[in-house]
Amino acid sequence: MKSLKDMGKDELTQLKAELEKSFEDAKGKGLKLDMSRGKPSVSQLDMVMDIMDTLNSSSKLLTEGGVDCRNYGVLDGIPEAKKLMADIMEVSPDQVIVNGNASLNIMYDTVARSMTHGVLGSTPWAKLDKVKFLCPVPGYDRHFAITELFGIEMINVPMTVNGPDMDMVEELVTKDESIKGIWCVPKYSNPQGITYSDETVKRFARLKPAAKDFRIFWDNAYAIHHLYDNDQATLLDIIGECEKAGNPDMVYEFASTSKVSFAGSGISAVAASKANLDYIRKFMTIQTIGHDKINQLRHVRYFKDINGVMAHMKRHADIMRPKFEAVIKVLENELGGLEIGSWLAPKGGYFISFEAMNGCAKDIIAKCKEAGIVMTNAGATYPYGKDPFDSNIRIAPSFPTPDEMQQAAVLFTLCVKLVSVNKLLKS
Amino acid sequence: MKSLKDMGKDELTQLKAELEKSFEDAKGKGLKLDMSRGKPSVSQLDMVMDIMDTLNSSSKLLTEGGVDCRNYGVLDGIPEAKKLMADIMEVSPDQVIVNGNASLNIMYDTVARSMTHGVLGSTPWAKLDKVKFLCPVPGYDRHFAITELFGIEMINVPMTVNGPDMDMVEELVTKDESIKGIWCVPKYSNPQGITYSDETVKRFARLKPAAKDFRIFWDNAYAIHHLYDNDQATLLDIIGECEKAGNPDMVYEFASTSKVSFAGSGISAVAASKANLDYIRKFMTIQTIGHDKINQLRHVRYFKDINGVMAHMKRHADIMRPKFEAVIKVLENELGGLEIGSWLAPKGGYFISFEAMNGCAKDIIAKCKEAGIVMTNAGATYPYGKDPFDSNIRIAPSFPTPDEMQQAAVLFTLCVKLVSVNKLLKS
Fold it and tell me: What pairs with residue A392 in β-bridges?
């Protein structure tokens, strides 16, 4: 297709009229779709309903070691759940603490604890004049919300197809002691679906931060959320790499089954060095009586082992793949060659990231809303909700059906075209 | 029986020899009992096993309002779980947020949040030179551990049979702005089993604290844990009383089902004014994706309503009562009239508190351990683990069987006698 940038004013004006008519038609259809969050679809949830039969009143609710999961005891997770979560993260069980239903809560607690008590003996961050975090962008709004809540200054670091711009990361953490952390979604990143290259992981592991209490927050949320059986991204084990590089304590890794079993009723985990885990356990002893062991047992008995999880995730992929492909196909068909937007075709994860022309994202999302599609807020993929280019849009294809997704994508591209034409006419 | 205090040296020496012989005999029996924590017994847990059948793969996992409990959404608890927890606490559902499996975690988070962000707009406690909490003693070690962790200075306030010494509480909170809170277990208190009188609750509600961000931490852990059907303690609704007294925001109330369904796999809740709850929700939005709604639904469907819970707790009482009565009977039989210890006979809760002669608690607990009974550490019922009188011992009768409990109580009284005789001989 002809690039809109090569069109003259008249051509654009005519196109605008056509697009406006199409938009009014689309609006008339009364579409109502929420694509704002990475919510599992009903069919994904239905697929795992038999987890509800895993345990019943005849079950022996004992761990393999004989601990009664119905009673108090076991602070950091039952051993078999540690093993399962370790296998998902590709680390070893003794590097794992199993928590409650939300890995977000572990990340929040980790930041909160660092604020009040520091990191392995460092000065509590709340006592420092300035604490900063690096934030690869576009990224995950809920990460940014945590650091914003605690008054931590966030610095944007651009993403590349291999992960964050490591030249920038290295330079910043080496020279600035107030930089205490970085938020990463290293596999099938939110929202771009990028997996950090081996070189990126190794450069992370070899960082020489000015701050001894600098930590990589490695949110491996989509570790096993592949779309293709024969084309899966692999990610180096950051904990192992940090160990090798002489930085064993520099990273916390997080994961959960929120998008494996039931969102909100799964189990979550943090993996880290023994020193980090011991420190976390010290606080957990005071914070909680331990997490829900019966739900941990339910997950282990249902999935049995990592093979069970992987087989299950293949069926997830069968549900997710058509939706992703529908979006990508529509983007290609409707926008290919127009030079008004770009995107990557992810091989896993939960999102597709769309880069509109600068200054267009807010207007596109507003247009979509007008026609009945709720998207993630413009700016959400940036710290403070401020996309400096007003260009990034996160598409979350998981919840709608493939048909709905296809319709929504067509409408989305229509909005993209309409807003872009207006922008070009004004420039 | 003759008071040991009226015995002469010879008489005591002879008694000592007899007691030492009995102790060696008892040791020979190789008893092995852990009475250190308020753990539900296996029969209590067995009794609730059919909760595991409440939900299965055929269940509609929807709230009454139609929300799919399997997916993300609903931050502060499903409405029917709010209702259930509200009825347990005798408050209204809109005063309730339902959380995860541990009310301890809500208390921890409440203190942590106050440290970093203050209370409804007050200065974050971490930025103050000094923060203090009042701690009615003897009290609950896990409460004290939270405030100790955050460097909050703890001030002992003696308990009376009507609750904390309110003259002291009133005087301290009125004159000292650095006092920001008080830990209370107002019903069947841990460890004494005391229920705060109406007058005590009203005096709490009418407090005029110097600190605007002073809060009562009202841990109503044993709200429905009666031992007797026809002799139940009642507790005034502190939230309602605070409202009436013009102090609507001065209290947080906590409760859980840890000792109703399964310890560690229950649901918990906090109740407070709308202003307090809105503030908590603001943080929850960032901290978590919400708590396990399926487990909330499981509890509601199993117990149905407060009547179901109360019927269930009656069966609990039938298990607990004989153990409490066994202990009390042994204490009376073995120690009555000796003037070497005192206790109350609780009508609910999980503990019996024993006051030994000053300076004897540590030695008694050490002796018990020598003979195979693990008790809660001496000092645990006081802030910093320091019982200034070394006299308080917490007995936790819930976990052992009644037979074991009876044996353990006899051995315990033997140790009390032995240590007391030694003490008297040295004085």
Answer: A355
